[in-house]
Amino acid sequence: MLARSVTTNLLGSVASLVLGFVGSLLIARWLGPSDRGLLALLLSVSMIVWILATAGLPMSVLYYASRPGASTQRLLGTTLVVAAALTIVLVPVAAALSGPLSDAFGHGRGGLLWVLAAAYVPILFLDSTIHNQLLARLSFGRYNVLAVAGKAATLALAVVLVGVAGLGIGGGLVATIAASVVMVVGCLWFLRHEGRPRYDGVLLRTLLRYGVRVQANNVFQNLNYRLDVIVLQFFRPLADVGYYVVSQVIAELVLVLANSFQSSVIPLVAGAADADRDRTTILTIRHHGILAGAACIANAGIGTLLIVFGYGSAYRPAVVPMLILLPGVWWLGTGSVVTTNLRGRGRPGTASVVSGVALVATIVLDLALIPPFGVIGAAVASLIAYTVQGILSLAVLSRVSGLPVRTLVVPDRSDLKAYPAAARAVVARLGRT
Q1: Phi-psi region of 316 (alpha: psi -120 to 50; beta: other; left: phi over 0)
Q2: Residue 138, by phi and psi: left (phi above 0), alpha (psi -120 to 50) or beta?
Q3: Are residues 162 and 27 in contact, defined by beta-carbon separation less than 8 angstroms?
Q4: From the CB of residue 290, how many other CB atoms can be counted at a distance below 10 Å?
Q5: 124 pLDDT above the threshold of 90
Q6: Could you tell me if 34 and 242 are in contact, meaning their C-beta atoms sit under 8 angstroms apart?
Q7: What is the pLDDT of residues 185-224, one digit of tens each?
């Protein structure tokens, strides 16, 4: 089940990645470094608000939807009410504060685009909570079809709104939001036979109890990922933010592997017996390490070519920070897979402690390195913080599970033999076809 689910998620993620990357590349070329930097800031602030405002509910929905007797009607109805409340609160606040937000995070730019960024928060909330119900049902195929369709919508709208209509940052923001809209509509279509959604206050309190324990981890983890972009804009022009965001986009292509494992781990770990849970944990961490290591090596060459010839000469300064980030991205992916295992074991609070330590390292390093060294300082700070998070995550999981770190990380012959065996099986199947 683990192999099938990860393979399905990986194939879907690769297809989504190709479409999403082409869209990102085109938007970056059409906008230029400064406007691409502002778009990144709009999206980064939206993501941080989403994390703060949703109280860990998306991951809580995944956990409880994976358990026996879960009610889609109650889960869906409750999350729809929460999304409506977020919209009622956030959109008017963003409209009233669009000026101060522009001054604080956009070098005086953005204006009413901050309202659109605020509207993205409840849409993203619905995206995450509803598609998590598909994942809890192990409906990985449907989820990946919708993910690919969402990226295709983003690409199409990027061409129409940014490339043809010339709507600039606003067009890029709408194109990005479209992926979540497609996911929400598609998931509702697949879940339409489950009955009429209904709000359940008791369920909301139950979700919040688990979500609050997850929330600290979400806040710490996402600030650890994106705080450098926010800090960078205080000390450097928006063009430098654009360079750094492109370096992140390229380096984090490797995270498609971690995301593929994460989508499979919680449903499999949460419902497994102890022996199966440990075996799933070992296999996910070992095989992520093998695949992500190979991907980092390949990305060092391919990523450089993508920046130079894909994004164009205007983004050439992104090459060096991308290469600095790559080893850290391996540790970041490993830490993410470990965090998912801890959540599946019902230990979200433990994962939060690990992310909190990594966030402290990120804040200290960002403030120490970004003012004097700019983009390179941001990359080095992230490299160190990601490495701290990955190492600490493995140590904590070892203590919680009783599995030695060496057992978790170091592959044996059977792990390595799995790849040629899988290749032979694919070739044989193609031959029969």
Answers
A1: alpha
A2: left
A3: yes
A4: 15
A5: yes
A6: yes
A7: 998 888 888 778 888 888 888 888 878 777 776 677 777 7
Residue 144 has pLDDT above 90, yes or no: no
Token digits of residue 192 = 């339409």
Q: Are 76 and 132 in contact (CB under 8 A)?
A: no
Cβ atoms of 353 and 284 within 8 Å: the answer is: no
Question: Is the C-alpha dihedral spanning 381, 384, 390, 396 positive or negative?
Answer: negative
Q: Quick: pLDDT tens for 404-419.
A: 888 888 888 877 777 7
Under 8 Å between Cβ of 41 and 192: no
DSSP 330-372: HHHHHHHHHHHHHHHTT-HHHHHHHHHHHHHHHHHHHHHHHHH
Inter-residue contact 225 to 339 (CB < 8 Å): no
Whole-number Å distance between alpha carbons of 322 and 380? 10
* pLDDT at 254 exceeding the cut of 70: yes
pLDDT in tens, 267-311: 666 555 666 778 888 888 888 889 899 999 999 999 999 898 888
Q: For residue 89, which phi and psi values (nearest 5 degrees)?
A: -85, -50
**Cβ-count burial 32-50 (b if 16+ within 10 Å, e if not):** bbbbbbbbbbbbbbbbbbb
d(CA 167, CA 173): 10
Instruction: Encode pLDDT of 320-362 as tens digits.
Output: 999 999 999 999 889 888 887 877 776 766 777 777 888 888 8
Placement of tokens 């074991």 in the chain: 345
Per DSSP, the three-state class of 197 is coil
| The two three-digit tokens of residue 424, written as one number | 């032979």
Question: Which tokens go with 121?
Answer: 């928060």
Can you read off the two tokens belonging to residue 51?
């994390």
Nearest 10 degrees: CA dihedral of 266, 269, 270, 271?
A: 130
Residues 97, 297: contact at Cβ < 8 Å?
no
